[in-house]
Alanine--glyoxylate aminotransferase (Priestia taiwanensis), 367 residues
Amino acid sequence: MENKIPFRVLMGPGPSDVHPRVLRAMSTPLLGHLDPAFLTIMNETMDLLRYVFQTENKLTVAMSGTGSAGMETVFVNLVERGDKVIIGVNGLFGTRMVDVAKRCGAEVIEVHAEWGSIIDCTAVEEALKQHGDVKLVAVVHAETSTGVRQPLEQLSELVHMYGALFVCDMVTSLGGIPTNIDEYNIDAAYSGTQKCLSAPPSLSPVTFSERALHVMATRKTPVQSWYLDLSMIQSYWGEERFYHHTAPISSIYALNEALQMIKEETLEAVISRHTYFGKELQRGLENLGLSLLVEEGYRLPQLTSVCIPDKVDDVVFRKRLLEKYGIEIGGGLDSLKGKIWRIGLMGYNAKQTNVALILAAFKDVLT
Ligand code: PLP
């Protein structure tokens, strides 16, 4: 395999580079998925996930599948046919949540904001007032399609005032910015392993509050997905250890190691590192005369969207970065296609050498 893989620095919207320790963890021998030694690794992984999610939530596990599997897990378990659901749409992943919720039979009320802006609390309140009896409100914490960081605290208070559950997409935020699950009373969140956790794509960490557990326990209809039904998944990750499906052993080794590394560095230091190098990159790009899509104050440190200057060809530029420097960055999606580049400094990649490398490569290829 090695001769098929060219040198790359993954500085796009994910996957990000995986630390060698995590790669080594993946190549350790398999254990049976009910082996007591593996069960210890699972327990440890749940504890580490609680640490990184900043929660005491009992139901905190890693679903098999990528971030989208986590998204489906949240919706299929919390939503029943006919439920009213409000979704903030300010980028591609809000749009995806709408699609998933509709497939669950929800009556979806979309609250839109321009791509590159945050979802406005007042607009959500209007929707809550107008529709009444809303089951849940969902937003994307770190919109990877635009680089926007959605403030959560006030929104969470508002949603709970109206008796709804508050759900957050934390695929790109977990391990990069604080998620504050317990402090902000977030009822359900899902993430991915391939962004700021610096593990390969394959698992989706999820966490659910007691309120969310109650909603699941009092469902009138069975969860439409067998594979993602948390009542069964809990019995495998929980004390019963009932076989449900074969756990992706090597991926769980990788996640465990990646989380362990965050614990060793401390979450606080990991978050400060992302903040520091994100700002360094953003300042450096502005010094090159480039402008950033997102207003200061709402920029993610781990994903920066930069406007493509007139007269620069998006595809030619990215091809040159890849061929000359081995650097991968992302292009814009949908309405932002050809208008922005997306640069990731996620997890292991949030470091000085990468900031210096990308700024030097940008300077070279732009001139
Ligand atoms: N949500 C957000 C914010 C994402 O960035 C992504 C992936 O980039 C997803 C959901 C979907 O995750 P995956 O591609 O791992 O299924």
Remarks:
- The radius of gyration is 20 Å.
- Residues 267-287 form the longest helix (21 residues).
